[in-house]
Amino acid sequence: MTLRPLAAAVALTSALALSACSSDDPDPVVADPTPSAPASIGEATPSADTTVDAWAEESPEGAMAFAQLWLDTFTDAARSGDTTALRSISSRGCATCADFADAIDHRYSHGGSIEMDDWVLTRVTWSQTPEQNFAVNWTMRVPEQRFVDARGIVETAAALRAKYTFQMRWQRDPWQVTAVTTEGAS
């Protein structure tokens, strides 16, 4: 069995995350639970209007809302094959972001598609890096994903639970994801 491009990108992300681990990483700080930015959320997600308002500010809540926007944009790209918006909110230096977008482009340009349900967040924390950027840490359930090739042959990636870290920096327009890493896929 061969790995499909998106599955390979996820595997690459896992390898990068494990190789980048160090003991001097900042300890995550659990966000204070408030009605607008809970520290731990279930399957409910904020409305689009709330998300836009929240991610438009330079704050931990804005960073967490922008990470949600990035994930929603990734999901839309995977389902539609259009990676334009995903690339626009990812920095040019985010290799993992480019790997995800390239894998989606490859799948669709060769007549295939990706079928997947929404990823479910089970825990959200954040920390601030020494460079004053933010890291948003998510534990999430990734549902089964189906990769369909041009002939209609389906390969399935099993559901898993993983921790993702979104490194991001504040820009004028306003945030950009600079790195995505994962660990603990099970």
UniProtKB/TrEMBL annotation:
Pfam families: DUF6318 (PF19843)
Keywords: Signal
Organism: Nocardioides bruguierae
Comp. bias intervals (Low complexity): 23-40
Domain DUF6318: 54-179
Region: Disordered, residue numbers: 23-47
Entry coiled-coil feature ranges: none
Residues of the signal peptide: 1-19
The name this protein goes by in its record: DUF6318 family protein
Domain of life: Bacteria
